[in-house]
Design a protein that fits this description.
single chain; alpha/beta; 4-stranded parallel sheet; 8 helices
Length: 253
């Protein structure tokens, strides 16, 4: 199975780090294709960043489907463009926030999210509501470290995350932690050991869910709103994003 891991920001260094972590849990025999967004922001830390990451993300989805990819992971905790990506993909597309929250409810009755900047907490809250986890998510917390600074001082990051997670568990009376940024994925194992509770990395969670769907031979439904986009002209610099006037059976995707 060939799985595409898409970093929706344009940081190639972050993509490499995510790929290293993902390959540690990848099922033997499966292939990981790690892709960096070709157009968009260097990091995604707000609504504007998220919106402008989506066109490049969707191009990566289309390219992956053409190149034989059998599943996709969107490696940003905002799950940017998730439903649009599912519209144009025949194979499963999983966002890391959605995957992590689902997984958290399998191992605890309540979870806390610990993310990067406070300004992104509302985005996480919107996702909690959209995915129906408002009764499970007991708090959302930030360590106030920008995404692109996560690798500046690894020891300080681990200390800050350990303290933030411990505080969240105490205040929220939760039983699990969801890491609220793809760039934190490498911390999950150390934090799980230090805190004695499940600490869930959405990148690994999403990757394993894609593998599971592939093994079960389940693909994205093309009935209703997730059917392929309607053929119509697009204007300006988005002309290339117009969907081909092809039936699903003859579509190259």
């Amino acid at each position: 199975m060939k799985i595409q891991l898409i970093n929706p920001n344009t940081s190639a260094a972050m993509t490499a780090s995510l790929a290293d972590a993902a390959r540690q849990v990848l099922h033997p025999g499966n292939q990981l294709l790690a892709v960096t967004n070709s157009a968009g922001p260097a990091s995604i830390e707000g609504h504007y960043d998220e919106a402008l990451s989506v066109p490049g993300l969707l191009q990566a989805i289309r390219d992956g489907e053409r190149n034989g990819v059998q599943g996709h992971v969107i490696a940003c905790f905002g799950d940017p463009g998730l439903l649009a990506a599912r519209e144009i993909a025949r194979h499963p597309v999983i966002g890391i926030a959605e995957a992590a929250m689902h997984l958290a409810t399998w191992v605890a009755t309540g979870f806390s999210i610990v993310t990067t900047l406070g300004r992104t907490k509302v985005i996480a809250r919107h996702l909690v509501e959209r995915y129906g986890f408002h009764q499970h998510c007991r708090g959302i917390h930030a360590v106030e470290i920008p995404v692109l600074a996560l690798d500046d001082d690894p020891e300080d990051l681990l200390r800050s995350m350990r303290a933030a997670c411990a505080g969240a568990l105490e205040r929220d009376e939760s039983g699990a932690i969801v890491l609220g940024c793809a760039g934190m994925s490498h911390l999950a194992a150390e934090l799980t050991e230090a805190l004695g509770v499940p600490v869930i990395d959405g990148v690994s969670a999403a990757l394993k869910m894609v593998e599971m769907l592939g093994e079960l031979k389940l693909s994205t439904s093309k009935r209703g709103d997730l059917d392929y986009p309607l053929a119509k002209p697009y204007a300006g610099y988005l002309q290339g994003f117009a969907w081909p006037a092809l039936t699903p059976a003859s579509s190259p995707l």
